[in-house]
Amino acid sequence: MKHFLKEHLFPIIMLIIGAASAAFSIECFLIPNTILDGGVTGISMMINYISGIALSILIVVINIPFFIIGFKALGKRFLFRGLFSTGAFAMFLEVFKGVDTVTNSELLAVVFGGVLLGVGVGLVLRYGGCLDGTEIAAMLLSRKVSVSTGGIIFMINIFIYITAGLLFGWDRALLSLLTYFITFKIIDLVEQGMEQARAAMIITEHAAELADSIYERLGRTCTFINAEGLVSGSGKTVLYCVITRVEINELKRIINESDVSAFVTISEVSEILGNHIKRNLLENKALDEKVANE
Q: Is the model more confident about 274 or about 94?
């Protein structure tokens, strides 16, 4: 029962709270002052302003292709929590649509709207959900190119805000960009990092098995370090792997599903020098070697 509450019920409750906070920010702070969010939500808000189609419908419809892609890469649990949090977000958008505007002050809307949105999105991300499909696309694309997930998301949002400036005026675009920076920082505080890398150290006697699973499901390679415990003695191996924060939940699932003994620590990485090896780099290297041999 305790395991069920911790692993399933509590995360669902936090996903609901996060979705409610984000929806309240959108409907009661941002929309009344024509301030846009980034990603899918920002695109949906622009279409809503122009066409009048319900924002809740647009967010669900536009997100669906991204969740299908995410399901193939990240599994059933991600799909469930992503669809659940997005559905809750859409529902709360309809609930808060009838609530009076909190403030007509653009400055207050930017600050408090950005904070509430950041808290909501941060909670959803922390507990394995997702409100914005562009993050899924950026994470998967970052495995193919040398640009980080955060960098890809930033470029997408800059394009969205430029479009908003052309449609609604540059003052709206600048206010939206300021809101994005506030939201980004709050997400960093709540979720402990939007794109900041994490270093995972896994001490286990089944290093090869775990390393293969991590490579297969995350596209990340591990460094093997021989280790010896004070009590357990030799035979231990430390796997060292650098991942992004969106991959932490998947790493935990890999370890839990492997049913092997492992001691895991995850810490922040302040800076990375050099190129981190990803799956596509290894595959390209292997292809080059094959061509050279032929």
A: 94
